[in-house]
């Protein structure tokens, strides 16, 4: 009975995501039309002076249309991506009843920015800051002369659109990305499996950011993707799983390495993430992390969120049982940043490498040294 309910709820959510994707164009155009209406209410002289602004809004509408043109391509394949669960049923009937998710437009917009970060040459600088230190650490920890990299299992929870996991797999490791956001999963499925050639698509990642633009052209910067052809990767070495990291990974001592990038602050209780990472690592396994502590649930109403500082986290990490082998603060990193915006966010991130001891001790030791 419960399973039936779960299946129904999952289907409803999946269809809501599809419907939200489909609503991107109308919702975005409506927002622009509201701005036009706003101009329409101004005194005639203001209207005259703002004629260029009005023209800019028309250009932004064209960009929305271009962004939207990618969505049907992606959705076409979404129904078959979960072992065809949604392709065999009379899905159209249910789709009509599905609701558009209230927070959904933000999520679609985030996917466009994440496409820039993960799969465009415009995102190369960010990837160098964020992914490269992790990749270099993995390469140094598992030198080719000593390890058969194809046997080293690496997990990337919170994989976004999958680029970090893809890069790790491309270097010969067995790598799995995990992601629970269906918006990301649907788009990464398309990019990773169906993009045919380099720079095939053009999107406008920042058209929805109306503030801090010197000119509309800066708002309308486009990104082409994919900057590499993802398909020829050694497929057997690369996979993505869908679902909550805490629920999907329950087998102890399974992974040689867990790599997290801009992820650990995505939990209401970061300690639970740390414990799970510890448990699923093999004895002697490595946890490599890079990112800030922008606790995602911090301001979410009715959410039991904790926001320990990095100092407190370091203590927790040791209490859980890890040995911290490397730690650097002040690592300059950006996240989906428009390089031309007047507002530039840059994180002084932390980068650390922790090892689960090889002695098979369980976690939660009270006799751990306190620093
Ligand atoms: C800030 S993004 C970082 C994405 C990518 N690692 C990067 O650096 O660009 C965090 C990602 O983790 C995902 N995420 C958050 N909590 C998760 C969980 N419990 N299980 C799986 N994925 C999760 C989010 O959906 C989001 O895509």
From TrEMBL:
Q: Which GO terms describe its molecular function?
A: carnosine N-methyltransferase activity
Q: Which residues form a coiled coil?
A: none
State the protein's name.
Answer: Carnosine N-methyltransferase
The beginning of the lineage is: Eukaryota, Metazoa, Ecdysozoa, Arthropoda, Hexapoda
Give the function comment from the record.
Answer: N-methyltransferase that catalyzes the formation of anserine (beta-alanyl-N(Pi)-methyl-L-histidine) from carnosine. Anserine, a methylated derivative of carnosine (beta-alanyl-L-histidine), is an abundant constituent of vertebrate skeletal muscles. Also methylates other L-histidine-containing di- and tripeptides such as Gly-Gly-His, Gly-His and homocarnosine (GABA-His).
An example of a Gene Ontology BP annotation on this entry? carnosine metabolic process
Its main localization is cytoplasm
Organism, scientific name: Sitophilus oryzae (Rice weevil)
* Keyword Disulfide bond carried by entry: no
């Amino acid at each position: 009975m419960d399973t039936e309910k779960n299946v129904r709820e999952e289907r409803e959510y999946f269809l809501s995501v599809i419907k939200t994707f489909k609503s991107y164009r109308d919702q975005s155009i409506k927002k622009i039309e509201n701005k036009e209406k706003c101009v329409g209410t101004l005194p005639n002289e203001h209207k005259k002076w703002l004629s260029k602004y009005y023209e800019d809004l028309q250009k932004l509408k064209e960009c929305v249309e271009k962004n939207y043109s990618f969505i049907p391509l992606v959705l076409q394949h979404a129904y078959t991506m979960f072992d065809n669960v949604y392709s065999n049923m009379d899905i159209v009937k249910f789709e009509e009843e599905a609701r558009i998710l209230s927070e959904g437009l933000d999520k679609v917009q985030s996917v466009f920015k994440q496409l820039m970060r993960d799969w465009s040459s415009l995102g190369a600088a960010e990837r160098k800051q964020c992914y490269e230190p992790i990749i270099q650490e993995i390469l140094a920890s598992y030198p080719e002369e000593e390890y058969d990299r194809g046997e080293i299992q690496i997990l990337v929870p919170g994989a976004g659109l999958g680029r970090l996991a893809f890069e790790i797999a491309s270097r010969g490791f067995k790598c799995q990305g995990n992601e629970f956001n269906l918006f990301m999963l649907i788009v990464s499925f398309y990019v990773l499996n169906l993009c045919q050639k380099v720079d095939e698509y053009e999107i406008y990642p920042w058209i929805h950011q109306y503030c801090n633009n010197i000119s509309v052209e800066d708002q309308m910067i486009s990104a082409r993707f994919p900057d590499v052809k993802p398909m020829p990767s050694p497929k057997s070495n690369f996979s993505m799983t869908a679902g909550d990291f805490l629920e999907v990974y329950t087998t102890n001592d399974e992974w040689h390495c867990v790599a997290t990038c801009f992820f650990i602050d995505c939990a209401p209780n970061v300690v639970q993430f740390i414990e799970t990472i510890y448990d699923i690592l093999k004895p002697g396994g490595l946890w490599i992390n890079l990112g800030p502590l922008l606790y995602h649930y911090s301001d979410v109403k009715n959410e039991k969120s904790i926001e320990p500082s990095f100092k407190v986290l370091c203590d927790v990490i040791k209490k859980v049982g890890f040995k911290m082998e490397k730690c650097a603060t002040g690592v300059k990193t950006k996240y989906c940043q428009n390089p031309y915006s007047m507002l530039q966010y840059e994180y002084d991130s932390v980068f650390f490498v922790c090892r689960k001891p090889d002695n098979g001790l369980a976690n939660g030791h009270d006799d751990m040294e306190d620093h």
